[in-house]
Amino acid sequence: MFYMGSVYLVIVSPAQPVDAIGNLRRDNPTLVDCLQVMVSELGAWDDHDVERNLRGGKLTRDINNLSPEFRAIQDALEQPRVYRFLDRNSANGVLRRMLDLAQIYGSQFERIFRGSWYETPTVTGDQEFVALFNLLRCVAPAMPAIVDRESSSSLKVSHFNVYFMQPPFWLPGILDDSRGFKYRQEQSWRFPMFLETTVQPHTWGKFTPRNDCMVVSPHHGIPFIISEVISDVNESDRRRVLVEAIALARTGQFLLKSSSKKRFFVVALYVDANMVVSRYIVMQTGDVNAGRKPVSIHQKDFDFREVNEQADFLRDMYNLTTQITSLSGDLDQDKSDSLHFVLATTSKLPSLSAMRTKTKASGAHMDTIAEGSAGAHGPQDEDNVFEAEDIQNVLHRMDYEIESIPWGVRALDFSGLRTNAYASILNLL
């Protein structure tokens, strides 16, 4: 039934098996094992949870204590961004002006960029020059004051996303589908994890994570980057995001082509109240076919109160786009529906709370949230009916994707259709 100004969407899903996780484990045991984690207590997320789920791997700041793959990734992220000297005399006046503006900040410019006549450029267009100029002109001088005087975590979330995450990942992902990634903010994963506790082993609960922002594969649905900005005073979200990344590292390795020589890795980011960004490179180590599937983590911190470290982090994020594009190309197309199958099989199971320690701002609506404040532990996705798993199931089969949620309209989504699916929705009612 339709009324002016209202649309009612009703989707009825088929009955669900009683033991959905058991059936899933029987049909695809390797994938289910990748998605399983054990925690001490639901919602607590402590250091023991991280250590336990590494299954013999390491978490360290000393990259020399890890396998060579970690050093190779870090070296790739720290490479200068190469632009052609020819651009300096280009007939493109806008490009020339943007290069001139970025070079005003000589020290930081040289930390990110290197001009060359002969090397293959990694910089295309003027967007990276604009991103550096905007960062150093608008926010870098104020960062110490933001840390010392601003108690609203939402402001810090906004600055981090706008100046450090959106320039490398959001706009390129929109303009170039071949990049193999999409940027998302405040959205749930398109598949669940499975949690058991130490006091109730082998009793599994479904948990669908939701991150402040993430960079995901549009075809396979797996995140390459997950990020959290400031949780409670105990920083439980730091441990949560690491446990999530551990499961992703195993799952991503499973999704790679059997012929791939690459190691799948995930980057987890956590920004604390002092705007120190911890970057974690998370990767399955050892024999990829081993039963335990150990995962190791390298941690590097960037103190955003130092302008040079802001520039270094921005450079690393731009280089990370290249690494993700390459990794995306090695995902097995025959497994592109694997994670959606997990979602479909378990869609009727009750989901554990997102267990987030506070409600954070999303989109254009930036509420003032005091750091360390207690938050709601209510049902996941309660504000967005279109993220309900039954609905996502049907929309996925129709190749339909929710693109954005307008601020101020709580129950209405503006939806992007990759196919003309509107009539198909009505036929499902």
Set down the secondary structure blueprint.
Elements: H1 20-27, H2 29-35, E1 36-39, H3 47-54, E2 59-60, H4 68-77, E3 81-84, H5 93-102, H6 106-112, E4 113-116, H7 127-139, H8 143-149, H9 153-175, E5 182-188, E6 193-197, E7 205-207, E8 210-216, E9 223-229, H10 236-255, E10 265-271, E11 276-284, E12 295-303, H11 307-329, H12 338-346, H13 389-397, E13 400-404, E14 414-417, H14 422-428
Parallel strand pairs: 1-6, 2-12, 3-4, 9-10
Antiparallel strand pairs: 5-8, 6-7, 8-9, 10-11, 11-12, 13-14
Helix pairs in contact: 1-2, 2-10, 3-10, 5-7, 6-11, 7-9, 7-11, 9-11
Tell me about this structure.
- By secondary structure, this protein is α/β, with parallel strands linked by helices.
- Helices cover 38% and strands 18% of the residues.
- It contains 14 helices and 14 strands.
- The protein has helices at 20-27, 29-35, 47-54, 68-77, 93-102, 106-112, 127-139, 143-149, 153-175, 236-255, 307-329, 338-346, 389-397, 422-428; strands at 36-39, 59-60, 81-84, 113-116, 182-188, 193-197, 205-207, 210-216, 223-229, 265-271, 276-284, 295-303, 400-404, 414-417.
- Strand 10 and strand 11 (276-284) form a beta hairpin.
- Helix 1 (20-27) crosses helix 2.
- It is globular and about 65 Å long.
- The termini are close together.
- The relative contact order is 0.16.
Strand order of the largest sheet: 2-12-11-10-9-8-5
Instruction: Provide the structure class.
Output: alpha/beta
- The total of beta strands comes to 14
Number of helices: 14
List the helices and strands in order: HHEHEHEHHEHHHEEEEEHEEEHHHEEH
